[in-house]
Design goal:
This protein is an alpha+beta fold and about 950 residues long. It folds into six domains: about 120 residues, Arc Repressor Mutant, subunit A (Orthogonal Bundle), CATH 1.10.10; about 120 residues, Rossmann fold; about 80 residues; about 70 residues, Winged helix-like DNA-binding domain superfamily/Winged helix DNA-binding domain (Arc Repressor Mutant, subunit A), CATH 1.10.10.10; about 190 residues, Serine Threonine Protein Phosphatase 5, Tetratricopeptide repeat; about 100 residues, Serine Threonine Protein Phosphatase 5, Tetratricopeptide repeat. It is about 60% helix and about 10% strand. A seven-stranded antiparallel β-sheet has the order 4-3-2-1-8-9-12. It has a five-stranded parallel β-sheet with strand order 11-13-14-10-15, with helices on both faces. A hairpin with a 3-residue loop joins strand 6 and strand 7. It is elongated. The protein starts with 9 loop residues before the first strand and ends in a 5-residue tail after the last helix. About 50% of the residues are buried. The N terminus is likely disordered.
Length: about 950
């Protein structure tokens, strides 16, 4: 090229015209044509890039280097060229205008010169060199940047990923971003349009606009592109893989100026290849995307919203955010699936679309007639991949649809042990399915794990059902899980909890699916019953109380269909059912009966472990239902059995429950000192196993009991430390039952006694959140009660009604422990609101429950509230006697905190009777027992009163 200082050395022929750039000569037959030098330069640039769009800026900078000219100059010279040049066979100009972009030479062209063979460029048929027009890129800019960075060094980059993930989109976007990097532009080749590998060379040549008399098409391509700097995009290589790989390898080695981006569902396996595995778009998990701002941080949601916005102007709001997040989650972040789903939204509400997608992927049908057939439904893209599989690969894929979550190669071998393939063949097929992007593979600490995307799993499951192999596959899957969970049950007693749960928790979906099939359509009740029993430890460790109870109840019903059920299996199921009843919304006689029956079976077969578990569970039930005396007797029996069998850790579990019952009976001092000792002796938390053997973590449960007891005993520092340890450790364990127990039994009452409304609300919200994650129905009224407490503390009159409703629910549920305390708290709140009748009724009920339950721990509080009513009735003498009794009762039981509250109320009363010295003398020794390190309204109030009494400054 003359202006760039390079000689072209070529002659360009089109029709009867010959153009020799080196001589600045355009000939028509044997007659030279007169053209201006600028027009010649423009023609030279256009014919040297036949079929390509040459931008206006590029044309002007070439014809007028280092000179600014108006675009009208370009138009004038292009018009002159068009007048001089022939028309094409269709009557169009040789130079086509591409609106807004530039011009393109479109006449058939022959090129001679240099050491090249006779080549022809049929520019009229080279329109495929134009990159496809695709929607705006969303969430893949980092991918495009990485691919662009790889190309200069690797030269052959294959974008690999599952059907519909967006391989073509990122390849085209990368090519567009690099247009200025390649002198001779970019050529896009869609190999999906052919079915015969022998047509790959011809398709590439045609896309390049190359024809000719060469018998070897590949050699002709090489010669045609010898001096070119070009990017070639080979799209959809998976069905012509070996041929595409060989051609890409050959072109890369033969043409230093050529770079290639290929897209395929599996690598080309070329020696020159750099593989980029394209993952689905990130989408929110179950705990994210609850509002618009959070949801839109995820590219999958961004893509969905943008496509719907383009279709109908839709804007995401907070109400729709969790639904749209769930849609993207259901679609695994697959771009094509999301776009197809988005196309349905103008006709469907998001909630309706989600419901449809939960049942089937059939709604994912393209609405655009221009969509390629293989992309018109998500299932069509999967069918395309499925048809490329070998017979064995297809069969294994169908069998793998029984897995609901990730699985290892050993899992695959175990489930596929009867499909007629050797272990080596199963391993090879698994690896091939991963290579073909039908399985996603990730490496954890120990091994490679595989997973089917939901859409792929649904497709494969449908193929499994059609093949008639479904029953065998599901039976094999269920029996594999039975072996696995019976192994897990044995490991549960000794393996560290973190390792055990990490190994088996991911199996929950598979477990659910297998149990549902064996106890349902699969009609294999023996397998289902045994599998349910073996899964109980996992449900207990994960705090999935409701699911466990539901599955266990179903298994117990299924035992009726068995001619004989192993007594040990039945014992485990009944004990688990009883445990579930302990957390239910009604603690009725059926729970007592279940514990008794499970204990009977345990004694019958000599299973000491379950004798201990059933006695412990019964003791918990008795305490929950206000039968503390019976609970102590049951736990003494537990201790005797555990001691005889050298069950040291079990003894600790029983002792904690027994001491809690002792506390409720009113012996706070003894319970406090013994729980301190128990906590000291069980201070370790590392590598614990069988956390949920007794429903809750031992470290947590001991500190919950200690925190409550220590606070009432007046040791607020110890109570706070124990509570913090309990909350922190239960969160670290991710054991919702233990965490909920810590919140309900210690954190909430301590926050209430501290007078910190904000902390009460925070703990109540945390408990409520737990109850939405896990159906632990027993704590719902307690959560409601403290919400009412917080409202009442803030002056909300509805708080009292909320407390009243919660207590009614507790009594109706027969969850009677602490009800006397709750009723006294309600009475005091009602008094603040002037609801005297409710206060009297509540306090009367409190004393009645305390007497019937033998629950004396909170009696000083009941007496203190009674004195408040007596003062209201102007019975100051009676109030004084009642408060003296309250303080003395608290002193005798060891309830120093309640003694401070009663003494403060009595000092206020004596102050009104002008007994200042007596009031100060009463309050001084009790206040001395407390420090000011931790905030507490009761302590602050008592100290302020004592200081005023000493200074004689208390207001009249």
């Amino acid at each position: 090229m003359e202006r760039s200082g390079k000689s072209d050395g070529k002659t360009y022929c089109f029709g009867d015209y010959r153009f020799i750039p080196d001589r600045q000569l355009l000939m028509f037959r044997d007659k030279p044509l007169r053209l201006g030098s600028r027009a010649v330069d423009l023609l030279h640039l256009l014919v040297s890039h036949p079929g390509e769009v040459v931008g206006k800026d590029k044309l002007m900078s070439f014809a007028w280097p280092d000179t600014f000219v108006h675009e009208s100059n370009l138009k004038v010279n292009i018009a002159a060229l068009r007048r001089a040049l022939p028309r094409t066979a269709s009557g169009l100009s040789c130079i086509a205008t591409v609106a807004g972009r530039g011009y393109r030479f479109v006449a058939p062209l022959r090129i001679y010169g240099g050491d090249q063979p006779h080549l022809s460029f049929d520019a009229a048929n080279a329109f495929i060199r134009e990159l496809p027009r695709l929607p705006q890129l969303v969430g893949r800019h980092d991918v495009v940047a990485e691919l662009a960075a790889r190309l200069p060094e690797s030269r052959l980059v294959t974008v690999v990923g599952p059907a519909g993930v967006g391989k073509t989109t990122v390849a085209v976007a990368t090519a567009k971003s690099l247009l200025d990097n390649y002198r001779d532009g970019v050529c896009f080749v869609d190999l999906a349009v052919i079915g015969d590998p022998q047509l790959v060379e011809v398709t590439i040549a045609t896309s390049l606009g190359i024809g000719g008399r060469s018998a070897n098409t590949l050699a002709g391509i090489v010669e045609a592109l010898r001096s070119h700097e070009m990017l070639l995009v080979l799209d959809n290589c998976e069905h012509v893989l070996s041929t595409a790989s060989a051609i890409a390898e050959h072109l890369t080695l033969a043409l230093p100026g050529l770079h290639i981006i290929a897209t395929s569902r599996e690598p080309l396996r070329s020696r020159s290849e750099s593989v980029y595995r394209l993952s689905p778009l990130p989408y929110p998990d179950e705990h994210r995307g609850e509002n618009r701002a959070d949801a839109l941080t995820f590219p999958a949601v961004q893509l969905f919203v943008q496509r719907v916005n383009e279709a109908c102007g839709y804007q995401l709001n907070d109400a729709d955010a969790p639904v749209v997040a769930a849609i993207c989650r259901r679609l695994d972040g697959i771009a094509l699936a999301i776009e197809l789903a988005a196309s349905r939204l103008p006709l469907l509400k998001p909630t309706t679309l989600l419901v449809l997608l939960e049942h089937s992927f059939e709604p994912l049908v393209a609405s655009s007639a221009g969509t390629p057939p293989r992309h018109q439904t998500l299932l069509a893209t999967l069918e395309w991949s499925y048809q490329l599989l070998s017979k064995d690969e297809a069969k294994l894929l169908r069998f793998l649809s029984v897995f609901s979550a990730s699985f290892s190669l050993s899992d695959v071998i175990a489930v596929a042990d009867h499909i007629g393939l050797a272990i080596e063949e199963v391993a090879a097929c698994t690896q091939n399915l991963a290579a073909k992007s039908l399985l996603s593979a990730t490496r954890d600490v120990e091994e490679l794990r595989y997973r089917l995307l939901d859409s792929t799993r649904s497709f494969a499951a449908e193929q499994l059902a059609r093949s008639g192999e479904a029953a065998n596959a599901r039976s094999s899957h269920a029996r594999f899980l039975l072996r696995l969970f019976e192994q897990a049950e044995a490991e549960w007693l000794w393996k560290p909890r973190s390792e055990w749960t990490a190994c088996y928790a991911p199996r929950t979906n598979d477990l659910r699916k297998a149990i549902d099939w064996t106890l349902g359509d699969g009609a294999q009740p023996e397998v289902g019953v045994r599998l349910t029993a073996a899964a109980i430890p996992l449900w207990d460790e994960l705090s999935t109380v409701a699911e466990s109870r539901q599955c266990v109840e179903r298994a117990l019903k299924s035992t009726e269909a068995l001619s004989r059920c192993d007594p040990a299996i039945k014992m485990k199921l009944i004990a688990s059912n009883a445990s579930g009843l302990n957390f239910s919304d009604h603690l009725g006689p059926e729970a007592d009966a279940a514990w008794a029956e499970a204990n009977r079976l345990a004694r019958e077969i000599g299973n000491v472990d379950y004798q201990l578990r059933t006695l412990w569970g019964l003791g918990i039930l008795q305490s929950f239902t206000g039968r503390h005396k019976q609970a102590i007797a049951t736990l003494e029996q537990f201790a005797k059995l555990a001691g005889g069998d050298d069950e040291r850790l079990a003894i600790v579990e029983g002792e904690r429950v027994r001491l809690t019952a002792v506390f409720y009976r009113g012996d706070i001092g003894r319970a406090h000192s013994d729980l301190k000792r128990l906590a000291r002796d069980n201070a370790t938390t590392a590598k614990r196993s069988a956390v949920a053997r007794f429903q809750m973590d031992r470290f947590v449960s001991i500190r919950v009991a200690l925190a409550m007891t220590a606070w009432v005993a007046g040791d607020r520092g110890e109570a706070t430390t124990a509570l913090t340890d309990a909350l922190d450790h239960s969160v670290a364990l991710n054991h919702t039952v233990s965490h909920s127990n810590a919140l309900a039994q210690a954190a909430l009452p301590i926050a209430f006694w501290s007078g910190d409304t904000e902390i009460v609300r925070l703990h109540a919200a945390a408990l409520a959140r737990n109850l939405t994650l896990r159906e632990i129905a027993i704590w719902r009224p307690v959560c409601l009660f403290y919400r009412g407490v917080a409202g009442s503390m803030e002056g909300d009159p509805e708080g009292v009604d909320t407390m009243h409703l919660a207590i009614d629910q507790l009594v109706a549920n027969n969850f009677l422990v602490r009800v006397p305390f709750y009723l006294a708290t309600l009475a005091e709140a009602a008094l603040r609101d002037g609801r005297i009748a409710l206060a009297r009724d509540s306090l009367s009920a409190a004393f009645d429950h305390a007497d019937r339950q033998g629950e004396d721990w909170s009696r000083p509080e009941l007496l203190r509230v009674r004195a408040t009513l007596q003062r209201l009735d102007s019975d100051l003498s009676g109030a004084s006697e009642t408060l003296l009794l309250a303080a003395e009762t608290a002193r005798e039981s060891g309830a120093l905190f309640f003694r401070l509250r009663a003494s403060t109320a009595l000092a206020e009363l004596w102050l009104e009777a002008d007994r200042r010295e007596a009031a100060a003398e009463l309050l001084s020794p009790v206040c001395a027992e407390f420090d000011d390190v931790l905030p507490c309204v009761t302590v602050v109030k008592a100290r302020q009163l004592l200081e005023a009494l000493r200074q004689n400054t208390y207001p009249d």
